[in-house]
Design a protein that fits this description.
Layout (H helix, E strand, L loop, with lengths): L13 E6 L1 H8 L5 E5 L5 H4 E3 L6 E3 L4 E6 L7 E12 L2 E13 L1
Parallel strand pairs: 1-5
Antiparallel strand pairs: 2-7, 3-4, 5-6, 6-7
């Protein structure tokens, strides 16, 4: 039976992403500190928003990433703190901090 999340995410903005097992393992062992996502037309609203006061587009701020390995129902997952979010030539970079929870 798969373990359920017990971490209280109340008040946190959490972005859910699917990730390959190799990158998940690198994040879990601390060798991968940044998760990259390409900013495409289909993902624009997921990663950015338009400020109504000035009409400019800004990166959405998230407190944590919920990472899932693949698409199976009983898959590994983790909740990882986001320390910073940057943009570099069409790529959104999520700088990762502490692993808040791991579910296997």
């Amino acid at each position: 039976m798969k373990k359920e999340s017990t971490f209280d995410t109340t008040g946190l903005k959490v972005l859910t992403l699917n990730i390959k097992k190799i990158y998940f393992d690198e994040i879990m062992n601390g060798t991968k500190k940044i998760e990259y996502r390409e900013l495409k037309q289909t993902t624009l609203n997921k990663y950015t928003y338009i400020d109504e006061t000035d009409g400019k587009r800004y990166l959405r701020r998230y407190d944590a990433l919920r990472l899932f390995v693949g698409y199976n129902k009983d898959r590994e997952s983790a909740l990882v703190q986001v320390t910073d979010i940057t943009y570099n030539e069409g790529i959104v970079e999520y700088h990762l901090g502490m692993i808040l929870e791991k579910i296997t």
